[in-house]
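Suppose you are handed only these lines of text.
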Amino acid sequence: MIERVLAIETSCDDTSVAIVDRSGFVHSVVAASQDLEHEMYGGIVPEIAARNHSIALIPLIEEAFKKANMSWNDIHGIAVTNRPGLIGALIVGLVTAKSLSQAKHIPFLGINHLEGHLLAPFLKDAQHTPPEDFDYPYVGLAISGGHTSLYHITGLGEYHVLGTTKDDAAGECFDKFAKMAGLGFPGGVKVDQLAKTGNPEAYEFPRSMIHDDTFDMSFSGLKSSGQRMLEQLGPERVKENLPDLCASFQEAIVDVLIAKLDKAAKFYKAKRIILTGGVSANSRLRARAEDLAKRKNLRLVIPPIRYCTDNAAMIGYVGALRMARGETSAIDLGPSPQALA
Ligand code: KG4
Ligand code: ZN
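From them, the structure of the protein bound to zinc ion can be written out as follows.
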């Protein structure tokens, strides 16, 4: 029986390895961030990401074992992200997982990265336990640099896409605005910090599709509007007004996300809602989601930040559950750009 897996996540620019039980207990999760290497290019460079994964991965596997005080004897399978993501980056993780699976005579399974994000609220460790009453079904908002989608989740493998961004992801929108305002990359967290002392009503930004009949979203108009605003003001005035600009821009994104989450929760008569993905670290979004949950009597679960951003623990949890059901991948499994259908 599969009780514990080693998990590998290399879909984007973070290399991460974890050892996770089928119960969701995380024995260890370790990661190497490449933010500094990509910052000078103002965005993620796929070839650099793949090269860094190939350097970091094996030492991280050793570190994950050391931290958990375990060896290969304690591992029953290997879970690895094989979709969606940067193809070169995915290949590094996938080929490593296949090789280890062959060498150690244990099965491996390719995992959908988004499924990992959606089940991250179940993860637990020595510092963190999810609320006891947290279970399926729930409405989930997955928001990151690459994805912004709403799901109704009714069980393992049952993810019903309600709506998605028609263009840019919310995280990408945060990052582009931050870059244009001279705040570096990835800039979401800097916008969040500056916004804390700013006035969210100081500048007017569009909230596309907020009142339409669907659960879909759009952020490209907001991105262009942000660019125009920064150009009109010029570098000096932008610098002087950064807190107000960040607070106003952030509020436009958060208004749309909260409106769609509220609408989905109402439509599905949900009792539980979750936020997941890197953008769920945003303090304003968290506060507004908590307020929504209180007003509508919903159970809100946001995983700790270490499980919101890209990490191998969430991949390991999905892997352990699926492998316990008998699922394994064939040795000719390839990487894929496919998101959750
Ligand atoms: O899930 P994640 O770590 O990687 C992807 O799969 O994209 O998400 C990264 C995204 C980036 O766009 C980053 O700017 C954004 O999450 N982010 C934030 C905050 N922290 C991270 N956006 C807004 N406020 C934050 N505090
Ligand atoms: Zn992600």
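What can we learn from it? The mean pLDDT is 96. Residues 138-303 form a domain with the Nucleotidyltransferase; domain 5 fold (CATH 3.30.420.40).
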